[in-house]
Amino acid sequence: MDSRGTILVTGGAGFLGRHLVSSLLKDGHEVWIVDNLFTGKHPDTWLTDFKKTVDGASTIYENGSQRVIFIEADLIDLLREELRAPGSAGFPDFEEVYHLAAIVGGRAVLIEQDPMLVATNHMIDSLFFQWAVKNTDHIGRALYVSSSVAYPKSIQNQGHEATHTEDMLVFEDSGTIGLPESIYGWIKLAGEYLAVVAARKYGLKICCVRPFNGYGDDQDLSYPIPSIAARAARREDPLTVWGSGDQSRDFIYVDDFVAALRVVITHVSDGSAVNVGSGVNTSFKQVAAIFAKLEGYEPEVKGLSEKVEGSFALRADMSKLKSFGWKQTVSIEEGFGRVLKNVKQRLASK
After folding, report:
1. Of 161, 264, 138, 246, nearest to 210 (Cα)?
2. Pairing of strands 66-72, 30-35
3. Using one digit for the tens of pLDDT, what is the confidence trace for 32-57?
4. 110-121: per-residue pLDDT in tens?
5. Relative to the CA of 261, which of 17, 28, 211, 333 has its CA 20 to 30 Å away?
């Protein structure tokens, strides 16, 4: 295979995708992006130092040796056409393929209000894997982004919460699957199984990651961390959080998240999954308290019991990822400080 250091990122204009693309460019890779901008931001808004040219269906961004090829398209339509007429997308050989494309959104926006729209991810993933296994000679390694919500809800309930180890969810006769807490979790579980089949039956070198709760500076304000930061920036008192506020998550800053993806894709190729988190639980009341401290005031922190809170506790066992040499570099206090600074800038510009 002729791998020229060229990398494909599906969903590369989304929150995680933008940070991954930036990391890949810094290391000298040419990056191809396919994104329909359902939730992503057009590269014009974040590749601002790049010269832009249009070449048919592609937009090319160049800055010295850095090069991005952006295809604004629905991945479902593009891959259907590529499967019907191989080569129609104009793809080169790829050293790595990161499959991030998915219908995602805050819990209130999609998971609770429109779960059937989330089911579109079944089509996205099935077509991706059909395309990938037909192109094993043109793909060096691939990575599928799953989710921590693929784990059984039974180990996330209050009084039964447990540290999530990768072997709690394996596709073997001796393994257990359990019931995920949402349609999104079911679909990501199915995607992981497709990755295992693609590796075992078709020889595709692929890995999966199970991210816990990623956050970062430029995340949409509909997501929990920037949303709480915005309320703290406005010095709201009481400072409210959804649900009881006692529910907890395992938060990881986006730069550490991206570093984990790049480590896992080089170490795992059999379709198996690796947790991506910090290994530490933080309740939403604690999240609010940290932001209040960073903002320099002491509000009452109050849960909104009428708002959904999802699972009670998610926490990753990080042993496997750390065994590959990955280390967390951004503490929750530092990461939240960056978010608060960015959110205040956004609020001031309105």
Report:
1. 264
2. parallel
3. 999 999 989 999 999 999 999 999 89
4. 556 778 888 999
5. 333
**Distance, CA of 290 to CA of 198 (rounded, Å):** 43
- Could you tell me the two tokens for 177? 């699957």
- Which value, in Å, is the radius of gyration of the alpha carbons in the chain? 20
- 160 pLDDT exceeds 60? yes
Q: Which domains does the chain carry?
A: 102-216+252-279+315-324 (3.40.50.720)
pLDDT higher than threshold 70 for residue 283? yes
| pTM > 0.90: yes or no | yes
Average pLDDT on 244-251 reads 95
